[in-house]
Amino acid sequence: MKTRITELLGIKHPIIQGGMAWVAEHHLAAAVSNAGGLGLIGGANAPGEVVRKEIRLARELTDKPFGVNVMLLSPYAEEVADVVVEEGIRIITTGAGSPEKYMERWKEAGIMVIPVVASVALAKRMERCGAAAVVAEGCESGGHIGELTTMTLVPQVADAVEIPVIAAGGIADGRGLAAAIMLGAAAVQIGTRFVVADESIASDAYKDRIVKARDIDSQVTGRSHGHPIRQLRNQMSREYLKKEQEGASFEELEYMTLGALRKAVVEGDVVNGTLMAGQIAGLIDKRESCQDIVDDIMAGAGKLLSGSQFCI
Ligand code: TUI
């Protein structure tokens, strides 16, 4: 399936892996790229030198294009912004903010910048300052989210900008890809389904929670202080919400979740860890390789879209 995004990024399939903190490291990124999608290394809260190492390790595992996600709330965002240039990265996505202050630096280095946006206003601003595309991410996504759903955000962003739009949030199969194309997107970004991939280093316990999740098993914490995070319900999310309802300060809540994502992903602590995952977790019922995931999505979408005028 050729779209404006497959042509722009030089990839076979219009599937981009989310830049998930702790999960999106070199094994997963390389496996998604080798499967014909675009793998991403998630910079998350990692120092620049850690990201540099991840980039070099990914290069040993794939000769296909892959990118780096720069998480703009990271205390290391500035040094990661330099590392991606020094390492010759060609594709950057950004999350959790506006990358305006890095745009000139990245564009001068010939990098395609693809900001994740949660509103039409930010999408337009990103187009004006030279973004190559945008990811329009709905609040069905796991992790840090905006307000709008994918169904409402994607067509409004697609109408507002000329650059290609990548849909994210609530997409895990061929139906999701086909629907995204119908809404005006030229590709999808997928997170939760790749967390359970064989090549994902996420703990068995984390993967099991996603595979067993039902439709209603995610909830959003942190709305009261403006950092909403979608995750699967567990003791941690319940305690957090209770404290939040009791009016706990931002600092107290932050302290509570310090290192909690690592606990879930790396240590497999699904009781005290933060189990970031999207609403589509209920649809995901097995572990498989990235190649099988990509092939399944493409086969499903191919059937639905055959003869469609929406692909190029
Ligand atoms: O960034 C994400 N998802 C994430 S980042 C993350 S790590 C984290 N840890 C603690 C606190 C916060 C994050 C876990 N999940 N997705 C991309 C995304 N970006 N979703 C929403 C946004 C967004 C929201 C508002 C981007 C820009 C924005 O406004 C910026 C502006 O200046 O208008």
Summarize the model shown.
The protein is α/β, with parallel strands linked by helices. It contains 14 helices and eleven strands. The strands form two sheets. The protein has an eight-stranded parallel sheet.
Task: Supply the key terms.
312 residues; alpha/beta; eight-stranded parallel β-sheet; three-stranded antiparallel β-sheet; 11 strands; 15% strand; binds ligand TUI
Describe the structure.
There is one protein chain. By secondary structure, the protein is α/β, with parallel strands linked by helices. It contains 14 helices and eleven strands. The protein has an eight-stranded parallel β-sheet. The chain has a three-stranded antiparallel β-sheet with strand order 7-11-10, covered by helices on one side. Strand 3, helix 4 (77-86) and strand 4 (91-95) form a beta-alpha-beta unit. Helix 3 (48-61) runs parallel beside helix 4 (77-86) and helix 8 packs across helix 14. 53% of the residues are buried. The site of ligand TUI has 18 residues, from strand 5 and strand 7.
